[in-house]
Amino acid sequence: MADALDITPVSDSETLKVWLYRGTSTRLVLSFWDSEEGGAPLAAFAHAASHGGRDNVLFFADPGNTWLNGEGLIEEIVEWAAAYRRECAAETVMVLGQGMGGFMALAMPAFLEVKVALALSPLFAMPARAIPEGKGLEDLRLHNLGEVLGRSADYYLIHGEAPGEAAHLESFPLQPNIHQFVLPSGDKTVPQLLDDAGLTGAVLERAFLNQARKLRKTLEPLGVYRREDALPEEGGETEEMTGEQGA
Questions:
Q1: N or C: which end of the chain has fewer CB within 10 A?
Q2: What is the pLDDT of residues 121-130, one digit of tens each?
Q3: Are 5 and 54 in contact (CB under 8 A)?
Q4: How does pLDDT run across 9-26, given as a tens digit for each residue?
Q5: Which helix (H) or strand (E) holds 157?
């Protein structure tokens, strides 16, 4: 059991919940907590997100489940990130999330300077049930990730093979800075698989160091393959084309 970290709640509004943890490194992690999970970030997940308590972390939750479509929500998150980056003198910023939080994490490099974004079981688009009654897609600021996945950050996505995830993983564009890993998951979620195998911390750190090959090696005990592996030879990006750093 990971030791509890001193995580401080700093905002508890109807539109945004924020917790912060002050580490000792020059790295800031923005962790998007799926508010559907309820409560504050779990101790074990917080321990991994902070690299064992070393990294500074801001944890965010969208209690209205707006998928970043709340009025001014993105700007409020950017303000929190900028202020805390100055406070802890962070040299690099990473983002992390799972489920809906993964969607939020993958969107954020379009709005602030981020080196790496990591998402566990990420969704490419809002589910229909999340769209407010009486509104259409044209009323939403952000309903899928198609227009925000740029080239300024490296994106690491870890999917399971459950039917609900398969449709989303195939929606992501194939581009050199998007690294998609797939795990045979059965009835477990990706976070459960990583936690059961004791790999959560190692996986986060490999991704944050932008080490695609080493991340794949770390996931091999779970039967990992890359999405590109399942494509015809002429499709997708090869391992050599990813431009990873520090491998």
A1: N
A2: 888 998 888 8
A3: no
A4: 999 998 999 999 999 999
A5: strand 154-160
